[in-house]
Amino acid sequence: MALKFFPRESTSLLSFLREYNLSLSFCTHPSLTRALGIAYSTPSHYVFAQQASLFGDLYDVILPEVGMEEDCCQRVVSQLCGALSHLHSLGFVHRDLKPENVFLCDSACRWVKLGDFGMVKARGTRVPEVWYSSPYCTPEAEIAHGNEDSWRSMNDGKDVVKEDEEKKKKARVWVSVEPSTDSWALGILTYAMLTGSHPWAETASDCRSYLKYREWFDAAKGPEDELDVWAEPHTESAQDAIDLDGPELGKKDRIPTAPQFACFTPLACSFFQALLDPRPRLRGRPEDALSYLGGDWMMEKERVRLEEERKKSRGKGAIRNMKEMEGRGER
Questions:
Q1: Same domain, 81 and 207
Q2: pTM
Q3: Which of the residues 37, 97, 199, 286 could staple to 81 if both were Cys, CB 3.0 to 4.6 A apart?
Q4: 47 and 70 co-located in one domain
Q5: In a domain, 48, yes or no
Q6: Is 111 in contact with 79 (CB distance < 8 Å)?
Q7: How many domains does one find in the chain?
Q8: What terms describe the molecular function in GO for this protein (predicted)?
Q9: Which residues are marked as active site?
Q10: Which domain holds residue 1?
C-alpha cells in the first residue's frame, strides 16, 4: 500500500475527491493504479491509499541518450495501450502521460501501472487550450501559443522578453478534450524509452527538429490517408506497413527519413507516424498501436551501439553502488 499526499494549500477538496473517486471506481484495469478505499485528511494534507509500485517509475530506468531495451519498451507500450484504451472506453482522457506517471511493479517492466489522475477529464469537456514548451505538447495546442495559459520552460533563454510577451498575450482558446492527446504522448514516450532523448525540444512551428519531422511526415502521407480513425476502426496492420515499405519501394523513390528517426526500422517509423500524426482527428489510437508490437523497432547497427552503451552504464552503476556501500561501512 502507498499513500498519496495532496497539500491542502494548493489542492481543493473537490479536486482531491474527484481524483480519489476516479481512481477508486474506474481504474479497474491491471495497468492502472487503483485507490484502496482509504482516505483521510490532516491539518496540512488530504491523503488516500493506493496500490503500491515498489520499483519506482519509468523515469528511473530510462538512461539518458541510451534509453531502455527494446523488448522492455514494447512490454511497457503494450500495457499502456491497454490502460489508455480502458480509460478512453469509459469516456476519460488521461492528459498527463509521461515517464514520471508510469509506475513499476517489477524491475523488468513486466507489470507497470499508469497513475496520477489529476489531469483526467471526460471526453468532450471544454477546457482552455494550453501550449507549453515540451515535445509532449500536441501540435494543435500551438493555437494557444502566447496566450495567458501557455508557458515556456524556465531555462529556454527567453525570459528577457517577458514584459513584451505580457503585452502581446492572446485571448484564451477553448477546446474539447479528446483522446488523441494521449496518443501523441504515447508516441513521444515510446521515443524517449527507445533512445533516452526526445525527437524535438518543443512541438512548435519554429522548432527545426519538429519541422524536419513534419517535412518527412507530409512527404510520406498523402490524400489517401484522410481517414478519421476516431470515428471508425483503423484496419491497417503492422504487416501492411511492412509491405508498403518493402515491395512498394521498387515502384517509387524512398522518402528521406527525418534524421531523428533514421535509427528505426520501417515498422517503428510507421508506428511513430501513426501516433505522432499532426492531424488530431487522423491520429492513431492506442489499440491500433498494438499491431506494431512484436517486430524489430531499432536498426541492427543502432541496437548494437545502444547495448554497448547500456553495458557501460551498468558498469558505472555497479561501481557507484559499491562506493556507496563502502561509504556506509557495508561489505
A1: yes
A2: 0.82
A3: 286
A4: no
A5: yes
A6: yes
A7: 2
A8: ATP binding; protein serine/threonine kinase activity
A9: 96
A10: 1-52
